Amino acid sequence: MNGSLFILNQVVVLHCCSQHEHSWRDLTKVKQTLLEIEKNIATRKETDRIMWFSMWAVLSVASFGIAWFPMIYYTIKRRNDHFARQEKLETLILSKLRKTRNPQSAPESPKTVKLSSRNEKALTLSTLLIVPAFYLFYSLKTDLQKHEEHEHDFLHEILALAKDSGVPLNIQSYATTPKFAIGKYVFLSVATFGLAAAYWLYRIFNDYNNHFKMQWIIEDELLRFLKELDQKSS
């Protein structure tokens, strides 16, 4: 009898130790995820490059058009870098928040199309021709619109996951960059022999700049929320 009680006691102790080890591992993973989120946000200084159209326009004129090529290259590169960073950040944030909820009660991820990377060098060289240049401008603008539509769905999912957390999350003020009739600018660019394309490019520069700045505000609020959530659960 005493031997049976001893064995039962050992089983209970081992079970408790196993549960404690699993809890410790889960807590470590959550902390590690938060560190990865902070690192991702810290890289935005390199990925979300703010570009000033006036500066690049002056450089292009002063260099007799040579500065056009690095301008277009960096315009495409910052688009690729930002989209790639944002995709990783969304995965990390959703992973962290879903650990705090019952998976069956968590909302489904938005069914949106992933935007692939665009070849910076090939597209930059293609702008030597008029039609590829128009296609590039069109792609840069429509890609940003699709990206913002996806981000809108992502933030709705975050709000649903954070609803019963007891920690306030203020991302209700999110707004997309203004849309404009792309067909109109294509027509005006052709009708003015390319002069209207300069304004089109100016709008693209500003739309990406504004999107990045708006994104930084949202990311800072999300990071604050996640840190407070960690403090509350620890």
Would you write up a description of this structure?
- This protein is mainly α and 234 residues long.
- It has one domain (2-233).
- Helix content is 75%, strand content 0%.
- Helix 1 packs antiparallel against helix 8 (195-233).
- The chain is elongated.
- The protein starts with a helix and ends with a helix.
Low-pLDDT regions: 10-24
Distance between the termini: 41 Å
Strand runs, count: 0
Query: What gross morphology would you assign?
Result: elongated
Q: Main sheet?
A: none
User: What is the tally of helical segments?
Assistant: 8
Radius of gyration: 25 Å
Order of helices and strands: HHHHHHHH
Average pLDDT:
81
Overall helicity: over 70%
**Strand percentage:** under 5%
| Domains, number | 1
Structural class: mainly alpha
What key phrases describe this protein's structure?
234 residues, 8 helices, single chain, elongated, mainly alpha
In short:
This protein has 234 residues and is mainly alpha-helical.
Topology summary:
Blueprint: H1 2-42, H2 44-47, H3 53-62, H4 68-98, H5 120-126, H6 130-162, H7 182-191, H8 195-233
Helix pairs in contact: 1-4, 1-8, 4-5, 4-6, 4-8, 6-8, 7-8
